[in-house]
Amino acid sequence: MNRITVALLAAFDAALSALIGLAIPLVPLTILWAVQYDTAVDWSVFWRVAADAWLLGHGADLQAAFAPDSPLALGLPDGGQPFAITLAPLAFALLAILLGARTGRRAQESPYRLLGIGSAIATYLLVALLVTLGATTDVARIDVVQGTLLPPLVFGLGVVIGAATHSARSGERDPIGEFADRTLHRLPEPAAPLVLASLRGGTLAAAGVIGVAGVLVAVLLVADYAAVVALYEGLGGEALGGLALTLGQLAILPNLVIWAASWLIGPGFALGTGSSVAPAGTLLGPIPSIPVLAALPQGELAFAFLGLLVPLLAGFLAGWRMRAEVVDGLDGRSLLRWGAAAAGGIGVVGGLLLGLLAWFSAGAAGPGRLVQVGPDPLLVGAFAALELALAAGLGLAAGRIRRG
Questions:
Q1: d(CA 309, CA 391)
Q2: Quick one: pLDDT at residue 402?
Q3: How confident is residue 401, by pLDDT bands cut at 50, 70 and 90?
Q4: Among the listed ranges 141-150, 230-239, 260-269, which one has the minimum average pLDDT value?
């Protein structure tokens, strides 16, 4: 393939990825417009809702306001004042990263890798700019800079991950891998193997916590299925409205998993100013009538603090798994001294990853009490780092005892 073909194929792949993300909210909303509203409402309203959801899902902030006489503003003391929506429905970001990884792998297989990667990210940026400009109204406005730059940044992260993964599996050299190797070789001994063990172990531990959190969310939804259905029925929406509501809840499913992880770690999360959902107990005020929230734990749970065993077990297994790599890298040096450094590194990496995820999953969901929704990223990161580091140290020591 020549350069033009590579650039065009990468651009097409990126444009298709963006359109897939936009189509997920737009198609059901268009059906809702045609069937339930009988095309009596301007379709552009539904387009802007879908575009705003897509941009929000990539991290862009939405500035909105209700008219003082709007029914939506009733009961809100500052309903007529502008407010921000910064809570990102992370399913859109997750989809963009996955599709970006596919694009990155394909670009890495071409003879002009950097050209393909650059063409894909530039195309995604162009689509984001057009969507941002086409979604802006006096009632809801996406920041043009955020709406233009954040989507290609999220997509580009997936592209880099896909390209790096393909290179690692195929054994090919790429600029990212070469830069990482040069950086590690500049570190004094035995820092390089400890850094690698910390990165791998911390990522493994964070992934373990998120995985268990996902299972916990699934179990809660199944266990409280009757309450979720009852809330659906209480809303009284028709089939298409229920479908749109379900898709909206699926869009925040990754957020719910991260919130569950913050609960397992200890700090929990908030669903409005002054509220708390944590192992110590659940304190809620008025919350939105979203069916999936019916699965929230109520009051004080007798064995809630057993959830703290999850990050401890994840850290322990990460330390145990990384012990052989740490020992080989130390080349006879003291395991007690450098093992403690490796355990601390695993804790820092895992805490940083989980804190970042908590930050991405939190934000403002509306005016009033809803300005604070989600976990506190600093608390989540600090608690996770401490728990994972202590448990990783025990895992390294346990590996020593088992082999000794």
A1: 10
A2: 46
A3: very low
A4: 230-239
Give the CA diameter of the chain.
77
Instruction: Please give the Cα distance from 105 to 167 (Å, whole number).
Output: 8
Is the domain of 25 the same as that of 36? yes
Domain endpoint, select from 143, 164, 185 = 185
Mean pLDDT of 124-135: 94
Residue type, 147: G
Are 172 and 285 in the same domain?
no
Instruction: Give the amino acid at 395.
Output: G
Q: What is the model's pTM?
A: 0.89
- Which residues, including other chains, have CB under 8 Å from residue 20's CB and lie 6 or more apart? 95, 99
C-alpha neighbours within 13 Å on the C-beta side of residue 170: 14
Mean pLDDT value of segment 375-398: 94
Tokens 């792998």 -> residue:
105
Within 13 Å of residue 252, how many CA atoms lie on the same side as its CB?
22
CA distance 217 to 222: 9
Q: Tell me the sheet residues that pair with 123.
A: none
Q: Which residue matches tokens 């299972």?
A: 215
Residues of the chain with pLDDT > 90: what percent? Answer: 49
- The residue type at 370: L
> H helices within 82-174, ranges in order?
90-109, 113-135, 144-170
- The residue range of the domain holding 126 is 3-185
- How many structural domains does the chain have? 2
Please provide the size of the chain in residues.
404
What is the per-residue DSSP string for 197-259? HHHHHHHHHHHHHHHHHHHHHHHHHHHTHHHHHHHHHHHT--HHHHHHHHHHHHHTHHHHHHH
Helix (H) or strand (E) holding 278, with range, is: strand 276-278
